[in-house]
Design brief:
The protein is of the alpha+beta class. The chain contains 21 helices and 23 strands. Bound molecules: adenosine-5'-triphosphate (ATP).
Length: 631
């Protein structure tokens, strides 16, 4: 067998992340061991599953374990597992590159931040798995043989841009990662990772719950006072989710979370539940403290890990979690499923649907409790995951009321504080019968939109809905707690109390309105007087069931055919431009100049709401000509 050594380069992004590790940006160096043990444990889970699914696979699964081998003299530390191993191509793909989405954004953010603590938090959020070995080692050697293959692969790197890779004839099945340790440096929080006591402490702290034995030779005091070296299992291996809730420390939950979620930070919330009766299961779920970089990418995975009677069955079990809760991590261990259950079977299984319903309810009510009991943590939750959770208002009709209840929204009342719907309703004046809202692309755009003027003048609060998903749910939900949602850019709004004056104005403007409706008929279906404006001359509104321009644009962007919706131009009778337009029409009748003024009024209204002109060049030329006349 040829054992030619190839030298290859890390992918550019991997190189940059490695540099961060080599130059020790992350202060909690002990985490490397948790990462390597976590990978080893995953590899054993995979082997166990593969041997179960493929009876012809020639592997020995009798004594699956992880072995820690420190060598004080050589200053090395080896983490060895007899799990699934990797093929040569897998080593290249999995170790030489970083396929995680969000890497580019992470690197950009790291470049932009000069604050060490912020950089650490970013790294912590991203997790660096295998690469974290380079925090404590100046050279790493990996020897691996994939289950069922004859030859093995040896990989080595000092983390400086290149690595070597070669095929070797012999190696035990599984993976051994050998770290050539950096010198101990207490100041830099670099401990002696060849010391068995240090290693034992780290394993107990970070990896105690790992389901496979983690073994290491340790010194044991003998009867004659002499100590002897003995192979010991240093983790308790107790599945955390199977232990009674009251007996598990939060620190244990936190460590377990870091293992399942590949996160380096503590979770925001822990949910531990057990169901007994016809279908028994235990669930241990976590809400992370920060949203992952890829929360809104299409390939974002979702779902808890599924175990059956303590045996790992699959990662990302989608059947257990709806898409809008894709950020929830954890484990569900069911007692009464078959070990060879497949995704197809799970999709059909009504018991799994029942579990999912219960988990969803539990997660949502946990957030509800947070909302009423811990404002700061609720705020963190909502800032990170609110946008995703709101997808459930449309996607999960059974829970839409509950989701609305735990949601909070920006409003005209306070720039820095969001409001819940319940709080909004409590503040509503007695005669207000609807929840007013406006949708659009950004807070700044909608908050200065002319539609809001009269609401602001009258002290009426308006919700400012600027997430793309808001456009969707607000169309589909009729009401909350008996109050219907009313867009302030749609339908007729009557905020003026003086009906006598109204009637007079209607009469005065009747002629000019009819003429304007015809003059602008290519763009609008009607021109009418407004009671929602106080300082702007005009605004554009829709009928109650019309699609908003933002929604129209969203559908077009998704490639759907949508007819162009003509909306309504509302003009402000008290604005000098509008009253002047009317007197000019009354005195001189229609004319080219007046038509141009009407077009300008329409164009301005469109721009004021952040809309796009159909013919911007024509609009600017009209405006330029008009301005020239004033000079
Ligand atoms: N001991 C191992 N045995 C088999 N495969 C392994 C082992 N260690 C790593 N791998 C493979 O290499 C991949 C990359 O590992 P790495 O630790 O860099 O990232 P990860 O575990 O996928 O995610 P994270 O960076 O969030 O920890 C793993 O997903 C796994 O497929």
């Amino acid at each position: 067998m040829s054992t030619q050594v190839e030298t290859a380069e890390f992918q550019a992004e991997a190189q940059k992340l490695l540099q961060l590790m080599v130059h020790a940006i992350y202060s909690n160096k002990d985490t490397f061991l948790r990462e390597l043990i976590s990978n080893a444990s995953d590899a054993i889970d995979k082997l166990r599953l593969a041997s179960y699914q493929d009876k012809d696979l020639q592997v020995d699964t009798d004594d699956l374990h992880i072995l820690i081998e420190p060598d004080q003299e050589q200053r090395t530390l080896t983490i060895r597992d007899n799990g699934i191993g990797m093929s040569k191509d897998e080593v290249r793909d999995l170790i030489g590159t970083i396929a995680k989405s969000g890497t580019a954004e992470l690197l950009q953010e790291l470049k932009d931040t000069s604050d060490g603590a912020a950089a650490q938090e970013l790294i912590g959020q991203f997790g660096l798995g295998f690469y974290s070995s380079f925090m404590v080692a100046d050279k790493v050697t990996l020897l691996t043989r994939k289950a069922g293959e004859d030859t093995a692969t040896r990989w080595e790197s000092s983390g400086e841009g290149t690595y070597t890779i070669e095929t070797v004839d012999e190696a035990p099945q599984g993976t051994a990662v050998t770290l050539h340790l950096k010198a101990e440096d207490q100041e830099d929080r670099l401990l002696d990772y060849a010391d068995t006591r240090t290693l034992t402490q780290i394993v107990k702290k970070h990896s105690d719950f790992i389901a496979w034995p983690i073994r290491m030779e340790v010194d044991k005091p003998g009867e004659d006072g002499e100590s002897t070296r003995e192979l010991d299992t240093i983790n308790s291996m107790k599945a955390l989710w199977a232990r009674p809730k009251g007996e598990v420390e939060q620190s244990e939950y936190n460590e377990f979370y870091k293992h399942v979620a590949h996160d380096w930070n503590d979770p925001l919330e822990t949910i531990h539940l057990r169901a007994e009766g016809t279908f028994e299961y235990q669930a241990l779920l976590f809400i992370p403290a920060t949203a992952p970089f890829d929360l809104f990418s299409r390939d974002q995975k979702r779902g808890a890990q599924l175990y059956v009677k303590r045996v790992f069955i699959m990662d990302d079990c989608e059947e257990l979690m709806p898409e809008y809760l894709r950020f929830v991590k954890g484990v569900v261990d069911a007692q009464d499923l078959s070990l060879n259950v497949s995704r197809e079977i799970l999709q059909q299984d009504r018991r799994i649907q029942m579990v999912r319903r219960r988990l969803v309810k539990k997660i949502l009510t946990t957030v509800q409790e947070l909302q009423s009991g811990d404002a700061e943590r609720y705020k963190t939750f909502w800032e990170n995951f609110g946008q995703a959770v709101k997808e459930g208002i449309v996607g999960d009709p059974d829970n839409s009321e509950l989701i609305l209840d735990i949601s909070s929204f920006e409003s005209t009342r306070d720039e820095s504080e969001k409001t819940t719907l319940r709080q909004y309703i409590e503040r509503m004046p007695e005669d207000q019968d609807a929840i007013y809202y406006i949708t659009g692309n950004s807070r700044s755009k909608i908050e200065n939109s002319p539609h809001i003027e009269a609401f602001r003048d009258k002290g009426l609060e308006v919700l400012l809905l600027s997430d793309p998903i808001d456009e969707m749910w607000v169309e589909s939900v009729p009401e909350f707690e008996g109050k219907k949602f009313q867009s302030i850019t749609k339908g007729e709004v009557d905020l003026d109390e003086d009906s006598e004056q109204d009637a007079q104005q209607k009469e005065d403007f009747a002629g000019v309105l009819t003429w304007m409706s015809t003059a602008l008929s290519d763009d609008v279906k009607e021109v009418r007087l407004s009671s929602r404006l106080s300082s702007s001359p005009a605004c554009i509104v829709g009928d109650n069931h019309d699609m908003t321009p933002t929604l129209e644009k969203m559908y077009r962007a998704m490639g759907q055919q949508v007819p162009r919706v003509k909306r309504i131009l509302e003009i402000n009778p008290t604005h000098p431009l509008v009253s002047g337009l009317r007197s000019s029409f009354d005195e001189n009748g229609e004319g080219e100049d007046l038509t141009e003024t009407a077009q300008l009024v329409y164009g301005m209204a469109l721009l004021a709401e952040g809309g796009e002109l159909r013919d911007p060049a024509q609009f600017t030329s009209l405006l330029a000509n008009r301005l020239a006349k004033t000079l």
